[in-house]
Amino acid sequence: MVRTEFPFAVETVDPLWITLADGTRIAATLWRPRTEGKVPVVVEMVPYRRRDGTVARDIDIHPWLAGHGIACARIDIRGSGDSDGDLADEYLPREQLDACEIIAHLAAQPWCNGNVGMTGISWGGFNALQVAARRPPALKAIIANCATDDRYADDIHYMGGALLTEQEMWSNFMLVKKAMAPDPQIVGDAWRDMWTTRLTATSSLSEVWLAHQRRDDYWRQGSVCEDHSAIECAVMAVCGWEDSYSNFVPRLLEHLLGPKLGIVGPWSHAYPCRGAPGPLIGYLQEALRWWRHWLCGEDTGIMDEPLYRVWVTGEERPQPFYLPDHAGSWAAEDAWPSPRIERRVLHLNAAGLTGQATPGATLSVQSPATAGRDCGRWGGYGGSCPDMPIDQRREDGMALCFDTTPLDDDLTLLGAVELDLLVTVDQPHVNLAARLCDVYPDGTSALMTYGVLNLSHRDSHEHPTPCPVGTPFRVKLKLNDFARTVPRGHRIRLALANQHWPILWPQPHLSTLSMASGDCTMMLPVRPPSPRDSDVRFEPAETAPPVPTTTLEEGFDRRITTEDVGTGMQTIALSSDHGCRRYDDRAITVSSANSDTMSIKADDPLSAKLVTEYRWAIASGDADTEATAITELTADETHFNLSWRLEARERGRLVHSASATQRIRRDFA
C-alpha cells in the first residue's frame, strides 16, 4: 500500500554536501520532517548512486520515515555517485571512518536531537554492523538487512572455503558501478574530470579477492564476528530465507550481548515491504517503532516482541520463482539458540536415515561436474527471475542419498542441520555439497537447505591442508539455517555430492567420496509449536509514493540450459534486461542489462568457464554515458585465469578502455 498522508510534511535537500576532515566532499540526500522540534536521523551509506541507482527503493522508504518524524540521510560513499574520492574496494576502514565522521556531523546539526541510527540492505547492512563495532558516540541503534558478520565464510566470495562463481559476477558488476560518471545536475562542469579520474583508477576487484583464497587479515577486517562484543548499540537484524545472507540473523541473536531483535521472512534480497516473494510485512512500521524507541526514548513496545520472529515455510512444490507469496506461517522464539529446539540425531545407514546405527557396506559417490545445475543461484533475487531451486530429482540421482521413512506426523524444523561424517576420498582436493530435501509421495524433491565445504578446509579456513587420500577422516558440516514444516507422509532426504556447479567453482579433478554405513550422523533441529507464535503480527506493507517514472522499454529475465550431446558441454545462460526508464522528477534516463554464461563438461572440471557481462547507461544533463564490462574466468590444475575488459562511452563514442589478464595460483580452491 502506498501512503500519501503523513503526520509531517517532508523537506528534501539534494544535494546535501558533507566535507570530511581530509577535504573530501560527500554527496547526500536528506529527507527531514518539517517541525520546530529536534529529530533523530538515520543514515544509509552505499556506493550504488542515490539519484539514479537506488532511487526507487530510497523514495519508497526514506520519505515515509521522514513523514513520521525520523530524518533520513542517503549517502554516496567516497568515490561513488556524486562524492569525491576513489572507491578502492569494499568495506575498507576508510569507509568506516568516513561513516563515523558523517554521523558526528549530522548529530551536531541544529535540527538533530543528537541521536543517529544506521541502516541499509546488503552493502548498507554490512557497513552498519562494521560502523557499530567502532562505537561512534551518537550511534544508538542500527537495522541491518540482508548482511553478514563474516566476510569470508558468509559473503559473495567464498562458502565453506570453496570459491563462489558469484564473486566474479559481482566484481564485474562493480567494475561498471565504479566507472560511471557523476551527475552533472549536481556537480556541474566538474563531472567530466571526475569521470576521467574514476575511469583511470578502475580495475577488477576480483584480482584482489582471488589473491585471498583463505581466511586471512584481509577478510577479518570488517568481519564483526571477530568480536561481537564490540557492538554495544541496539541491533535489529532482518533477512529472508530466499536470500543468501539469512545465516547472519540467528548468529547475531546468539552472540550479540546488547539489545537485539531478529526477523527472517520468506523474502529474497529485498526490503520486506517491497520485492518478492511475499507475504510482505509492514517493515517500515516496525522500523519506526525501533527508531522511536532507541532514538527518541519512546515506549513503542518494540522490545516486548519475541526475540526471533521467523517465517516457517509450508508445503509448496519447488518452482523457479514464487509469486506472489510463499506458503507458511509466522513463529516466535524468545531465546536463541532456543532451549525448545530438540536436537534429533539420525544415522546415515545403507537403508536410509534411522535412529540407530547399522554398520554395513561402504557407500560411494562420484558426482559429475555438472551436478548442482538445478540448485538455483547462490544469490537469488526473487520476483520473476527464475533462479530458485527446482525439483531436485535430477540432482539426487547424482548424489549419495539417505531417506527417512514417510513421516507419521508433520515435522517442523527450525535452525541448522549439522552433519558429522567419516569419509574417505581418492583426491587431495574435494568439495562436498550436502542438501536436505522434502520428498513428496510422488517423488518430487524440494530443496530445504544446503551447505558446502571444501574438504581441505575441514579443520581451518586459515590453514587448509590436502585431504588424506585413502585414509578415513572426520568432517563436520553445518548447513544453512532454515525453517520448514515437512508434512505427514513426506520423507526427509539428505543428499551428498562432490560437485555443486555453477554455485561452486569445481576442484581440478573428479573425485570419489566414500563412507561406511552407520559411521555418520545428522542432527535435525526439531521445533515444537509455541503459544508465542500467535503473537507474531505485522501491519500491512506500506511505502511512500514512488518516484515518478516513465517506462521506455520493458525488461525480462531468462535462464536457459543447453547441452551439446556431441561434445558433452552443458551451458547455463542467465540474462536479465532491466529495461529503460526515465525518472521524471530529475530528468534522468537509465538502462541496464547483464548476462552470465557458465559452461562445463560432465567428465572434465577443468572445462569450467564463466563469462559475465554488465552494461549500464545513464543520461542526465550534459552527460550521456555508458559503461560495459566483461569478465571471464577459467582454470587449469594450478591457476585461475582471470581476464576482464572495461569500456566507457559518451554518446556512443568510446572514450576509455582498460583490460587485464591475470594468472592467480589456486590455493586449495
UniProtKB/TrEMBL annotation:
- What InterPro entries does the record tag this protein with? AB_hydrolase_fold, CocE/Ser_esterase, Galactose-bd-like_sf, Xaa-Pro-like_dom, Xaa-Pro_dipept_C, Xaa-Pro_dipeptidyl-ppase/CocE
Ranges of biased composition (kind: Basic and acidic residues): 530-540
Could you confirm whether the keyword Thylakoid appears in this record?
A: no
Q: Which SMART domains match?
A: PepX_C
Annotated region described as Disordered, given as residue ranges: 529-551
Q: Name one GO molecular function term.
A: hydrolase activity
Q: Which Pfam families does this chain map to?
A: Peptidase_S15, PepX_C
Task: Report if keyword Transmembrane is assigned.
Answer: no
Q: Which Gene3D superfamilies match?
A: alpha/beta hydrolase, Galactose-binding domain-like
According to the entry, every stretch annotated as the Xaa-Pro dipeptidyl-peptidase C-terminal domain falls at 288-546
- List keywords of the entry alphabetically: Hydrolase
Q: From which residue to which does any coiled coil extend?
A: none
What is the protein's name according to its record? CocE/NonD family hydrolase
